[in-house]
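re the bet — no i am not wrong, look at it urself. input seq straight from the record:
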Amino acid sequence: MNQNSIHDALITIDLYGDENTGFDSNDLLAWTKSNVLEAIEDNIDSLVTSDSIVEISELNITISLDHKVDFLKGDDTIKALVWDQIYSALKNTLKEKTTIRTPVQTYRASIILKYIQTGQLATDYSNEEWSIYSTAFFDDLMIGTNLAKIGGEIIFDKNTFSRFFELIEPVRLDKILDKLENENNTAIKIKALLRFVVENSNNFLPITAKDLYYKAFFHLLQVENTFEFAFEKLIDEFVVQKRIHDGKLKVPDEVSLEIKSFLKKNIFRKEDELGYGTEATKENESETEIEILEEGSFIGQAGLVLLAPFLSLFLKKLGCLGSKGEPLKPNEVPILLHYLATGEHVAPEWKLTLPKILSGLRPGQHCATQMKPSKKIDVQINELLKSVITYWEALKNTSPEGLRETFLIREGELKFKNGFYYLFVDMKTVDILLNYISWNYTTVKLGWMQQILFVEWNKT
């Protein structure tokens, strides 16, 4: 993966000499892309070592050329002059205090942490790259006191923990739990506790593995908590006191001592002293303040906005809307919309940012990342896409798959400002056909959406 990227670049070219240059803006733009940007790319690679990532907040490069020499024809002398000036500017910039150098492993780990915190990414990553970054995050997590520092971010709320839980492989999750207590059997005991709860389900509130692990991390990350105290808190969270003494409990050997200790201490307590067992403990439901990443969030199916007028009927036919027109299970709708646009029934959460917004969720809310396709869903999708083609006369004989590939699967960038979402879609020559759409796709506000979405596409 190319790790060099340029955001919000402003390039000013001053040509000295006669006013009549004979060059138009397109000539200069093409020359700039093939020479200036290429020179920046190659020179950065030669100036920065491969074991670090360099962030330059502001890069000013002044290129002085005399247009009397026809540099647009690719004169090697002029090209060498340009490259020398860029090399000098980059070298000086790298010496400035505002330039930040970060080890590659640390940088990769920070990308994963940002995803866990927000559910978003600014750049697209392949599965192989994502695996490398995830490994870097795990390795960084296991170094020194990093687990304690990063742990607070992981258990910030159920949304962040859900992403962490689904990202980390079970074996790594066990190692993290063991490191929390500097023991080799912490993970074994947590798993045994889960078995204890499941096998004695009449005595406990309903619980999933993710819920139990979330509570385990929450209590174990409290500095003042011992493992024994955290373990008892875990049981206390889900036990139904009126039933705990009913029948003979099935206790796994791995946690027999801890269970006996809990029962001895708590079995005879009055229910009003416990504060647990009558209802599930309220989770930290703090909403992530960051609506959208400051640098913008990557969108891979930007063309979904073209389908906005058709989505209500589509979701209604699939039984996804309530009597008042609201999504019944909003956390399951984003992956359905992604499937509609791309045909993919499994996707990492960071690819579902736009579908979340169109489903009425916040970008940081956790949602389902896979679904089970069915004939009913496929029929409704095919019907919707054919309807779009029918109303969009310029497409004529385009197939549903052709619509997907040409317009729906399109990269873009999502930003948030002044209380609104803004989607900037990458342009293609074929976008001239957008002029023949009869409905408004530049302003999207479905009944269940929290904010208006403005779309900047086909600005010709």
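see?? The radius of gyration is 28 Å. told u. also The beta strands are 14-16, 52-55, 64-66, 100-103, 297-299, 412-417, 420-425, 443-444, 453-456. so pay up
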